Amino acid sequence: MPRAGDAPPILDFAAFYGDDAAAKQKLVDDVRNCCLHNGFFQITGHAVPLELQDKIMDWNKRFFDLSLEQKMEINKDTTNTWNRGYELMKSQILEPGTLPELKEGYYIGDEIPKTHPYFVEKKLNSGPNMWPSAATLPGVEDFKATALEYYAQVVALAKDILKVLALTLDLDESFFDGFAAGAVATMRLLHYPSQPPDSPAKLTRGIGAHTDFGTITLLLQGRVAGLQVYDHATAAWLDVAPTPGAFVVNLGNLMMRWSNDRYVSNLHRVINVSGDERYSIPVFFSGNPDYVVRCLPNCARDGEPEKYPPITVEQAVLGGYADSYGRAEKWKRDEADKKKGVEGLAGTAVAV
């Protein structure tokens, strides 16, 4: 079991695919302990090839090396309404009281055509991807193929992790299959510029302390550190060192809610004071947008009340987006108002 002050352990997920019942049970027990403790663990021994991980991370860097003008050609806020494409630096504030975050992103998901019911009904993050043109990004067809292959493999891995999570709750391995059928998942390429060493004291974050909105997140870290997980037992931030080939897995708010707060959706953040550019790729597995989440069996025992009313996946995730992006927009409006106020005072002084 993870101890207070330990970074998320690295578990060998190969046991899930093997024939050793004892090894599989140990994996289930270890995952359960992590879910009860901090809601974070890392896995190796999965089926996503290291070569594919390295290739998508290389494309991640190549995309963000484009000029701002080139990236803005597929800006998610101006080219579509379904959250696909480029996201500007300082677009989010996930941690109340901090400054807009020093990260830029690029959203990718299933290649949903405009004839698909999810698009027609404006379901969560569902629509065509926004890709750079061949003139903007040479080799873009390989970028597309690599991104979609990586996305598909990580989504498949997420579904296997859900099978293990079902076993940790003494449920049938297939319990989450209905939730996972027709699931929405969002992949986000991220770039964090290096920050000054005094950034934490000045409330500047690569990404502020937050819990994820959905069910589970699988993160490919790259080679530069910066991810920190909060350990409630010691009230300390723990560094999660990048491990080649490993995925960091964490539970989101929806899984915590689903388990009646038995499992933990824990705080994490990124502060990149390494001196190097940091790149990472999270895949947020939300689930079927219409699936209604209510307290899981075995999670409200001996007359314990259910803490939350039923909610759809879509309602839960959209609420998280509204909060974090709304904070950033409010900050920008407040800063603009302050600037106008200063300019107004200056004009008054000149007039006098």
Provide a descriptive summary of the structure in words.
A hairpin with a 4-residue loop joins strand 8 and strand 9. The mean pLDDT is 91. The protein is α+β, with helices and mostly antiparallel strands and 352 residues long. It has a single domain, classed as B-lactam Antibiotic, Isopenicillin N Synthase, Chain (Jelly Rolls). Helix content is 36%, strand content 19%. Helix 3 crosses helix 7. The strands form three sheets. An eight-stranded mixed β-sheet has the order 1-2-10-7-12-5-4-3, sandwiched between helices. Strands 6-11-8-9 form a four-stranded antiparallel β-sheet, with no helix packed on it. The chain has a two-stranded antiparallel sheet with strand order 13-14. The longest helix has 39 residues.
User: Which CATH top level class fits?
Assistant: Mainly Beta
Main β-sheet description: 8 strands, mixed
Number of domains: 1
Structural class computed from helices and strand pairing? alpha+beta
Overall pLDDT: 91
SSE run: EHHEHHHEEHHHEEEEEEHEEEEH
Calculate Rg over CA atoms. Answer: 21 Å
What oligomeric state do these chains adopt?
single chain
Distance between the termini: 71 Å
Protein name: Clavaminate synthase-like protein
Keywords: Iron, Metal-binding, Oxidoreductase
Pfam families: 2OG-FeII_Oxy (PF03171), DIOX_N (PF14226)
InterPro entries: DIOX_N (IPR026992), IPNS-like_FE2OG_OXY (IPR044861), IPNS-like_sf (IPR027443), Iron_ascorbate_oxido_reductase (IPR050231), Oxoglu/Fe-dep_dioxygenase_dom (IPR005123)
